[in-house]
Design goal:
The chain has about 140 residues and is mainly beta. It has a domain of about 90 residues: Peptide methionine sulfoxide reductase (Metal Binding Protein, Guanine Nucleotide Exchange Factor, Chain A, Beta Complex). Helix content is about 5%, strand content about 30%. The protein contains one helix and eleven strands. The strands form three sheets. It has a six-stranded antiparallel sheet, with no helix packed on it. Strands 4-3-11 form a three-stranded antiparallel sheet, with no helix packed on it. It has a two-stranded antiparallel sheet with strand order 1-2. The chain is globular.
Length: about 140
């Protein structure tokens, strides 16, 4: 990746593509069904693409049918939330607790035992397989 394809993000969160900046820093959303992480089934961990902080375990991932990678819970202390009133609705926005990057939203319609659906933008997640392999 060339220097003109990445941007050093605020807060020292590393090099990001323009699309990652749009989602993480400008609260954008990727197209549903566009993330290769939707089909990721290996055991491992999902980290923030901005700063590398661990966010979700693969054991919490499930197929919600929403078109975005979905999780029933985050790792303890990994994410923070704020109220989002954009687009004429009230939602709970999810941010990386370390770099405050926008990850997606959490909804109260997930499976037991939490009843939560963390609907995340895959472009701002980095998957690290338990065997050490890195995915999308």
């Amino acid at each position: 990746m060339t220097m003109d394809q990445t941007q050093r993000s605020p807060g020292g969160c590393g090099g990001l593509t323009p699309e990652q900046v749009r989602v993480l820093r400008e609260h954008g959303t990727e197209r549903p069904g566009s993330s290769p992480l939707n089909d990721e089934k290996r055991p491992g961990e999902y980290r923030c693409a901005g700063c590398g902080a661990p966010l979700f375990s693969s054991t919490a991932k499930y197929d919600s049918g929403s078109g975005w990678p979905s999780f029933m819970q985050s790792l303890p202390g990994a994410v923070a939330t704020t109220t989002d009133t954009s687009h004429g609705m009230t939602r709970t926005e999810v941010h990386c607790a370390r770099c405050n990057g926008h990850l997606g939203h959490v909804f109260p319609d997930g499976p037991p035992p939490t009843g939560l659906r963390y609907c995340m933008n895959g472009i701002v997640l980095q998957f690290v397989a338990r065997d050490g392999g890195v995915g999308a």
